[in-house]
Amino acid sequence: PFDVLVVGGGPAGSASAIYAARKGIRTGIVAERFGGQVLDTLAIENFISVSHTEGPKLAAALESHVDGYGVDVMKAQRVEALVPAAEPGGLIELRLAGGASLLARSVILSTGARWRTMSVPGEDAYRNKGVAFCPHCDGPLFKGKRVAVIGGGNSGVEAAIDLAGIVAHVTLFEFDPKLRADGVLQAKLQSLPNVDVVVSAQTTEVHGDGSRVTGLSYLDRTTGQTRRVELDGIFVQIGLVPNTEWLKGTLALSPRGEIEVDAKGQTSLPGVFAAGDATTVPYKQIIIAMGEGAKAALSAFDYLIRVPAA
Ligand code: FAD
């Protein structure tokens, strides 16, 4: 069996595997898609000390760093279930989609998350070409331009406030007749001169010129008319979904499905730790996921040296 088995090969899982392997313990990593969300990213300009890189380049660097430590890497494998240890210090079982099982004394869950999409024509085609999901990441790319934010919940309104300080103009679109964000955020939003809010609006299409976004169409749900707005970017803020469906009923998840962790990355199950976008830790970013991954590995090591093997 493994001493530490990491599920997920994104920034969090890679950092966990490296920190665990550096302790000289038997470490494995199972990942459906090594690199994770980083693979879907173009420019990365907030990974501190690297002023500019690209997603696929960072993903390749993660993988080669992990490989350098003799970690047992199992790629293109999906974990479908976790079976907790039967007794304190016992082995935890991970069941793979193909039917095989892996055993480990400790497990680090770092399965990440995925952005909820609008599922309208043009959204996929213009992803990273004007359609964006992360204002902290891509906001500065739209300096001086006109953008839309889709979604009037807390994350949409926060994004609009954030972007208003960078871009020329923000239009926020909300499906419901009113915004759902906290009152203080709505008040802040209303005080900004370069933000418009459109409610009862259902986005129906993303338009582009073949290489970049040029606008969007939406259905005005009060009049039934379709309208078109010209803009350079669209930030979709209708939810980040953690990849934790398979863990429901096994360990404690928040109402949003995030794995509940304490300050050391410990979950509700002994010997099981978690890190990155799949957890309750706020602000979903590469540098944060890596830090949390390192922390979870150190916590797993701490567990291994304290809890005798059953
Ligand atoms: P992920 O990167 O989501 O990795 C999850 C891993 O788990 C993957 O390997 C996946 O295949 C695997 N996995 C999931 N379920 C299973 C399973 N059941 N069995 C086995 N494996 C599984 N952040 C920044 O800091 N800067 C940026 O510029 C930036 N730009 C972004 C642009 C885009 C388009 C997107 C989508 C995100 C961006 N982010 C950016 C956010 C950043 O990518 C995430 O915060 C970060 O990747 C989270 O790392 P993670 O390891 O927690 O999860």
TrEMBL record:
- Annotated Gene Ontology cellular component terms: cytosol; protein-containing complex
Tell me the residue numbers annotated for binding FAD.
3-18, 267-277
Which key words are in the record? Disulfide bond, FAD, Flavoprotein, NAD, NADP, Oxidoreductase, Redox-active center
Name the residues that bind NAD(+). Answer: 146-160
Gene Ontology biological process:
response to reactive oxygen species
Q: How does it assemble?
A: Homodimer.
Spell out the family assignment given in the record's similarity comment: Belongs to the class-II pyridine nucleotide-disulfide oxidoreductase family.
Write the protein's name: Thioredoxin reductase
Look up and give the organism this protein is from: Magnetospirillum fulvum (Rhodospirillum fulvum)
Organism placement in taxonomy: Bacteria, Pseudomonadati, Pseudomonadota, Alphaproteobacteria, Rhodospirillales
Q: Which residues of the full protein are shown?
A: 210 to 519 of 524
